[in-house]
Inverse folding.
């Protein structure tokens, strides 16, 4: 064992008459331990929340969206084929975006209408997996008004109407069930004697989905592309093309490549661009929380400063004897820096498993009310790079806290230390 490390361990252990010094050392270790544990657990919760929100958003939306500068466009199948031919692209499908109002005998609600291709939509988004009841193919097959509760299919009790899929909260607001007939209202383009004539068309509820995001479940409705084109008066146009890539993190790279590849006035945006404000706010919140909790380690570092300052005063005679025996300033400086690092290292080593334990306890025992948060457990995802960064920050803070007392100890002169001995 190096002499400096041996002496640092000997000083750190102390003697019985140095009980106050030992208590301060233990308090410093505990402070670092709880700071590291709290910061690791907080970062895991914040990362888990960000990824949970990302998964919810990407479950309803695609990774990349291609639109045209002129609005809708008609010759979209060659563009879809060109997009699908790009590397790292899993699938692509056209879609239609519009706004309308849904009415039933129990309520009225403004919604966002999305026209989709049921045969290809499941390859781009998770809408099919989010369906609580019904199936996507019913959008193109059509459905009859009425519903037989003893069957899983809509019973043919009336004229065939185009199908529509509603979000869970939207269906509750309108008081609709599978097979219910609702009216879809659009301002229309025809002008009559009393002004603009609204366009009203009946649709049958053929499915209800639950994405886990209240904003989507309360304001989103799906219909087939032909139904949306006919109702919105778009002719053969579509609004854009949805694209799914192999990994969500590859979306910016794929979007940039599509911008360079597609010929024409096309806008290509990835999911980060479409939700920039939300994820920027979450990232800022994570950074601020990390800085606040880092103050716990900083407070513990002040304890380290006080402990080492007391140790320098207590060991003044021993330091003078060491220097008289030939120890240099660098040796004395190293001894007290090692003491600070040992305190920080022990606290970090204890805080890391404690943080993992806190994450496990939160994830396995704490439950959330599902009707409020839409999730039953707090999402936890510990990124090892975050944990390593926390441990490294704790060690750096401990090192900085040890520098000044160590420098003071290195300045002790043998003659002054032994003057009254």
């Amino acid at each position: 064992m190096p002499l400096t490390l041996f002496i640092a361990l000997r000083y750190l252990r102390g003697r019985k008459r140095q009980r106050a010094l030992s208590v301060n050392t233990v308090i410093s270790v505990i402070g670092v331990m709880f700071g590291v544990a709290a910061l690791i657990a907080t970062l895991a919760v914040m990362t888990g929340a960000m990824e949970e929100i990302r998964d919810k958003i990407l479950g309803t939306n695609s990774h990349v969206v291609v639109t045209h500068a002129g609005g809708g466009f008609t010759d979209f199948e060659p563009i879809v084929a060109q997009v699908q031919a790009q590397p790292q692209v899993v699938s692509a499908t056209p879609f239609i975006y519009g706004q309308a109002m849904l009415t039933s005998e129990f309520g009225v609600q403004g919604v966002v209408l999305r026209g989709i291709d049921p045969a290809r939509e499941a390859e781009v988004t998770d809408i099919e997996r989010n369906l609580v009841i019904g199936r996507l193919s019913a959008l193109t097959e059509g459905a009859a008004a009425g519903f037989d509760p003893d069957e899983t299919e809509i019973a043919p009790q009336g004229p065939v109407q185009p199908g529509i899929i509603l979000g869970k909260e939207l269906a509750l607001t309108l008081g609709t069930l599978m097979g219910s007939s609702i009216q879809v209202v659009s301002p229309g383009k025809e002008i009559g004697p009393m002004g603009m004539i609204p366009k009203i068309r009946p649709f049958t509820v053929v499915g209800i989905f639950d994405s886990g995001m209240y904003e989507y479940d309360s304001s989103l409705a799906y219909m087939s592309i032909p139904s949306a084109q006919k109702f919105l008066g778009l002719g053969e146009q579509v609004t854009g093309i949805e694209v799914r890539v192999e990994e969500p993190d590859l979306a910016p790279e794929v979007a940039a490549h599509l911008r360079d590849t597609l010929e024409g006035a096309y806008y290509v945006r990835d999911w980060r661009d479409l939700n920039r404000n939300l994820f920027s706010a979450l990232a800022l919140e994570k950074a601020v929380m990390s800085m606040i909790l880092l103050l716990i380690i900083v407070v513990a570092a002040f304890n380290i400063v006080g402990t080492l300052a007391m140790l320098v005063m207590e060991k003044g005679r021993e330091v003078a004897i060491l220097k008289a025996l030939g120890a240099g300033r660098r040796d004395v400086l190293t001894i007290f820096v090692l003491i600070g690092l040992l305190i920080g290292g022990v606290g970090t080593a204890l805080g890391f498993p404690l943080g993992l334990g806190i994450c496990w306890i939160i994830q396995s025992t704490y439950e959330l009310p599902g009707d409020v948060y839409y999730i039953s457990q707090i999402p936890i995802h510990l990124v090892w790079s975050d944990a390593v960064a926390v441990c490294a920050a704790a060690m750096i803070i401990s090192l900085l806290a040890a520098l000044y007392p160590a420098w003071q100890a290195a300045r002790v002169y043998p003659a002054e230390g032994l003057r009254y001995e």
Summary: The chain has a mean pLDDT of 81. The first strand starts at residue 64 and ends at 68. The chain has 17 helices and twelve strands.
